[in-house]
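Trying the structure run again after the queue cleared.
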Amino acid sequence: MNDASTKNQKLVSWVKEVAELCTPADIHWCDGSQEEYDSMAQRLVDAGTFVRLNPDLRPNSYLARSDTGDVARVEDRTFICTTNEDDVGPTNNWTEPEGMRKKLKGLFTGSMKGRTMFVIPFSMGPVGSETAKIGVEITDSPYVVCNMRIMTRIGSEVLEALGEDDFLPCLHSIGAPLEPGQEDVFWPCDAENKYIVHYPEEPSIWSYGSGYGGNALLGKKCFALRIASTMARNEGWMAEHMLILGLTSPEKKKTYIGGAFPSACGKTNLAMIQPTIPGWEATCVGDDIAWMRQKADGKLYAINPEAGFFGVAPGTSEHSNGNAMTALAKNSIFTNTALKPNGDIWWEEMTEETPPELEDWHADKWTPASEGKASNPNARYTAPASQCPVMDPEWENPEGVPMSAFIFGGRRSNVVPLVFEAKNWLQGVFLGSIMASETTAAAAGAVGKLRRDPFAMLPFCGYHMGDYIKHWVGMGEKLGDNAPRIFYVNWFRKDADGNWLWPGFGENSRVLKWICERIDGKADAQDTPIGLVPTLESLDLNGLDIPESDVSELIAVRAEDWLQEIPEIREFFSTVGNQLPSQVLAELDSLEASLKG
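Done. Tokens:
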């Protein structure tokens, strides 16, 4: 589809405008076909960007190695431009719109010289869904085209659904123009000059200089969270950094749950959990993002706006997430993993034994005696969601699935119990607003330092965090008795000797069972100042070899520990500012008073 087969005049005009600005050698309108994908992949193989993996071991799959200066999202180069700085708030990088636009136009001028400009019409969510949104990404990166085909629905079908309606313009350039006769590099980018810029008032997205992940796949965090969260506030729905899973009891009662967790807390593993309790089944609707609307019956219905998984590879294994390993067995793209001599990929913790020899993510020879990791800590896989063996039968239902509960959580070695339930929606919003996780060795900064991340949205909320929390309060008022129940979990509590108290992974289904039974009025709980905690008898621990003393410690709530957190929570709230809703501050005051008895 190399001609504009659309009657959408805004789109035709915008493509022409971008072509005049960026001066590409040619223009390709993406149709989303397998033939087009294969052609793009071959182009990347020829350029040295892709290595074709062994087709007998990993059919139709590729390894990409990026520039060392372009390996992750760059939050410090991510900007939100609004007329009024107060709309953005202290947790985002604000820049005045016109000044940034002038800077970007300078960078984009001639930025696609010598390259093909690709026009990618894409749908976030099932095409035609009331909750779905259509965007068009213009890019000069065939790597982006291949990944967007896996991560979203792209091409002719989307253009047809768009018709003459509005769409979100998403402009991306790697920022590496080619002069006649100039030899290209395997990963072109402008590593020292990146800008990921959002204009929520238009709305539009401009991204320059990076070819990697969420910086370049503009349907991901840029559209699905930063821009969509603003749309959701304005239109009365929710765009959340949440997994969506379905749980079916032995009695065939199905419950859909959303879960928000900061990084390194096992979100993808939970989304694809394999329950260890006989008779219970789990299915995945999505592992990262949930868009939710209240429907005519008053309930909240969620869709997964994505069509694929863009997951962190290191740590993923048959033990931690066998369903993910099955999903990426074919038709997948791997970025910055290691390469085995047999032409397959490898990363840390993928297997119990480390291969004796590899090519690392720099394409250098690597052995277990080498310095550094074989794969980049942020190495990724891109895999079609349809290949996950536990995808929910309703995962592409345009109406979405009805939500019964939300789970919040973080990585906490102490203080926070294994699971507890908020007493009401407002207390649940308060718990979401104080979500925190201890940093791991993989994160910048001191290990074990507590970092607050409200609703796991701190890097992804497209407007003022105080107003975002206010939107949660308002959604509860709107949903009333149909509001999902709210729970908080912590798989990472340790004993006095630093040993894990809870086995995690598939055993987390025992906690999910208690949550489902609480919703159905079948499980007991004990009232505490922080919420409703399971009784020892209400958790199903049959077949699990865990001392009762450990279980007692897992569900213990100590007032003195929580009181020590109150000043730090107040300090964090002060950074959010005056727009934090008064109801949330009242919940904090109430908690403190209750803890003091």
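The longest strand covers residues 116-124. Worth checking whether this holds up in the mutant runs.
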